[in-house]
Amino acid sequence: MSTFIVTGGSSGIGLEIAKTFARAGHNVVLVARDQGRLDLASREIASFGVACETAALDVRDADAVAALIDRLPEVDGVVNNAAGNFAKPTVDLSLNGFRAVVEISLYGTFNFSTAVARRLMAEKKRGAICNIIATYAWTGAPGVAHSAAAKAGMLAFTKSVAREWGPNGIRVNAVAPGFVATDSAVANILSTRGASERMLDMIPLGRFAEAKEIAEAVTFLMSEKADYITGGVLTVDGGRSLGLTMHGQDPAGS
After folding, report:
1. 3-class secondary structure, 128
2. Are 110 and 158 in contact (CB under 8 A)?
3. pLDDT tens track for 20-76
4. Beta-sheet strand order (sheet of 77-80)
5. Catalytic choice (110, 136, 157, 165)
6. d(CA 25, CA 101)
7. How far apart are CA 60 and CA 76, in angstroms?
8. Sign of torsion, CA 241 247 251 254?
9. What is the pLDDT at residue 245?
10. All domains of the chain, ordered by start, with CATH?
């Protein structure tokens, strides 16, 4: 039994990851900013018969993150899922908007990863880290340049520290999910007419991802089954990032 931290763990993909850990018998620490939502989520996690702690904090606050890691009785790894995103033409994007998204995703990942790594190294203990990125970390995407920049940074960070921390027995990987139609994602990404249909047209498997599919991928990378995998990126996007057809040709040939 391990103890895994999940940032952004009170709802959406983060909560599904935490539930999947709990089903596998792991203890969970949920991190988010809203204590009320954390309380609801922790009751759900506790129903699986595992321990669930909560921490209401901002992942950008390095001191608060370090204090949390120091006070936890056990830590075996972290899933850096906390993120901010919204669709906006880059020329209309404010510096504050850009900064907020980059700091939540990239700085938050740095804060939790380094704090957990320091503790694992001090205890001479193996561990695992999984960073939730996006395929546009390497393809780019109009309208979310702020998030793409943050996720690209997370990707480079993942590969860099995987090489650094491997000798310490700390594995670091990433999962690049396809679009999951959570409430917040629908409100922020699919708010314009026809957006859902246009996005589905770009997915070879013809549907959006389910949160449980992302959670299973994360759980695999954090488990002993992935004990020889580090610095990797597992893409779970239904083939969307594989590219568009040429000249508008139907890939099915119809």
Report:
1. strand
2. no
3. 999 999 999 999 999 999 999 999 999 999 999 999 999 999 999 999 999 999 999
4. 52-56, 27-32, 3-7, 77-80, 127-132, 170-177, 233-236
5. 136
6. 33
7. 21
8. positive
9. 52
10. 3-240 (3.40.50.720)
Please count the residues of the chain: 254
The torsion angle over the Cα atoms of residues 235, 236, 238 and 239, rounded to 10 degrees, is 0
Eight-class DSSP state of 237 = S
pLDDT tens profile 210-237? 999 999 999 999 999 999 999 999 999 9
217, 158 in Cβ contact below 8 A? no
Tell me whether residue 228 is one of the annotated catalytic residues. Answer: no
Other CB atoms within a 10 A radius of the CB of residue 112 amount to 25
How many CA atoms does the CB half-sphere of 39 hold within 13 Å?
3
What gap in Å lies between CA 218 and CA 21, rounded to an integer? 9
Calculate the dihedral angle through the C-alpha atoms of 128, 114, 233, 53, rounding to the nearest 10 degrees. 50
